[in-house]
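Workshop exercise sheet. Pairs work together: one partner reads the sequence aloud, the other fills in the structure field after running the prediction. Swap roles for the next sheet.
Pair: D.N. / O.F.
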Amino acid sequence: NLYRSWQESFYGVTRIYRNREGWEIDESIPTNIATSNLVLECSEKVRRLEANMQSWLQPLVDINWQNIRERLAEELARHSSEIGLIIKARKEILWKLPWHVWDLLSKYPDVGIGYSTIEYAKFPCLKQKTHNKVGILAVFGDSQNIDLTEDRQALNNLNNTESVFLDEPNSRELIKKLRDDRGWDIFFFAGHSQSETNTGRIYLNDRESLTIEQFKNSLTEAISKGLKIAIFNSCDGLGLAQKLADLHIPIVIVMQEIVPDRIAQSFLTEFLTEYHSGQPLYTAVRRAQTRLEEFTDFPGATWLPLIFQNPATVPPQWNDLVNGNPDTLSLCQLLPLLPISLIISAMVLGVRWLGILQPLELYAFDRLMQLQPVEDKPDPRFLVVTVDEEDIQYQDSQAMIRNGSLSDLALDRVLDKLETLNPTTIALDIYRPTGFHPAISHRLQQDDRFFAICKIQQFEDNKYIHGVAPPPEIVKQRLVFSDVPVDKYDIVRRQFLDMTSSNLSDPCHTRYSLSFLVAQHYLFVEHDIEAVHTSKKEWQLGNVVFKKLNNHSSGYHQLDDAGYQILLNYRRNNSSQPIAYSISLKELLEQGISESIKERIQKPIILIGTIDRSYKDDHLTPYGKEISGVFLQAQMISQILSAVLDNRPLLWYWHSRIEAIWIWFWSITGGVLSITIWQRWRLLLNVFCSIFIIVAICFFLFAYGGWIPLIPPVLALLITTFLAAKKLDFVNKKD
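Structure field:
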């Protein structure tokens, strides 16, 4: 009742204004507003209404209302800069009341108040921006007896805008512009309007007017293309707001009663100034409302502007209008991404399954391996006795009859020298198919620490490549094969644990590799650890299970998975600190084992091998460097021992289903980026950041032994970003 009483007085005051301006002549109305009894009466009603409102909102006996006040007070104290209040009510009179006089808000002058209906819903889909400026469709309707110049100027003063002005358009022109494919961020109307039963009407010119119902379809289309704010800087706009609520527009700003020109113009200018400067929409409206109190000849003017909000949406900031607001991403925008991302992910997975991506994935594997930190010290469990060209010449100069790179006499003397270290295991990584001199043959037969090698016959290019037989004196239990699996360009990224030849003519009849059997022997002798098979027929030493590679394992999809193979996690050392301590044959025979070596290693594994290039026993590593076969065997043995005894991680990989989800996730990410970021440079920047995140995750997991897909998710991300942007037409066509 108090509001309606004020409303009647305010109408009287505005009639005085209209009479003074000359567009409504009534000689019975006084022209001196400052001394008008009607203005004084209106001011008194404002005072009474605000006092009554404050009293009504005070704490009451009602415990529910008290709980609301207390909770709201807590939230305001913690987050006042982030809060806007929304009053939801069924009756429009409750929207009109001056809620901003609430005593609870006295400490928070920037907390704005909006209104909504009880029932609301989010518009099913809002198209993202396709331009980098705020699109404003400004309609200046029937301007009879009102001045719209300042409204136009206020809009013209805004930066980063593309404004289209329609002056007294006909309905067809308005509807056509609303449906423009470019989309609008703000719809602005200035002119005459009024509320009618359950709707509102705007006057386009002196001949034509429209109710919201008459152009709701074009408004709905504009909303679907990104319209976020409608501003009606005209009289009696509450009916407009109510009808627009049914269309699910995010924000509507109207004047709830008849409004004089200068009040409407002042509010628009103040609001746009604050909003454009970066203030939240609610704060900008609240500040503009407060500044209307300067119009003392219009008591209650601060009540006139009203925000009508759809609570299912987030009020956009000005920068959101410029750049697009990712918070507006809706389910209907994600739905088209699902088939696109699924198809692209399936294509990437299919290409990967065929092995087409294997070279790229192995290249990425090498780069990740190269980025791993250097392990400063050699593995103290090893000593490598090397034979090079100088050692061969030394043997010849000492009249040692050689059978290959190492004479039997030299080997016998080497074994004598090594006894001072009390070695646990000795492995000769040199082929000796013709056996040994009888003088040393008996010694090697009796020494259960000594292991000798052979080479398994390989089937390559539709023919068998001859193997190399083992020394006949060595019992089968101490025979091992020295073969290593190689990838394209002879790079070694894997190692054998065991392999059984199916060729009966193969001279190398042993099941175990040098690295596996030597490691088993060392672990059993020194730590009483035996190799066992798990229920899945996988090798286990201690608590460590060695995962067998198959034809489709992580980046491998053209893998010859013969035998039992595992990935090789190299122990990376710098050039001055190789994988193991080493000593040359000549140095060992002439000087013996130095005291420094004796202090560092005890009961070691001794590997004896040739490092001379003429014997063609060099292999490429993922580091891009060649390594001699004997040091490669040391790497393989060290991997097994370090995993079992030192908890050093073996290389592992995900199940193919998890890899598929990982790739699909990044495909969806690319699609989301394409529909939420329309500016090309920002899209490229975010795609680059996403790729960096993929690489960082892969690098981090690789440090803990995890080899997860890197190239496939990057491809899925890039392809989906491009195709989704093209299909959904959300990428700007110009920079």
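Discussion prompt: DSSP finds 24 helices and 26 strands in the chain. What would you look at next?
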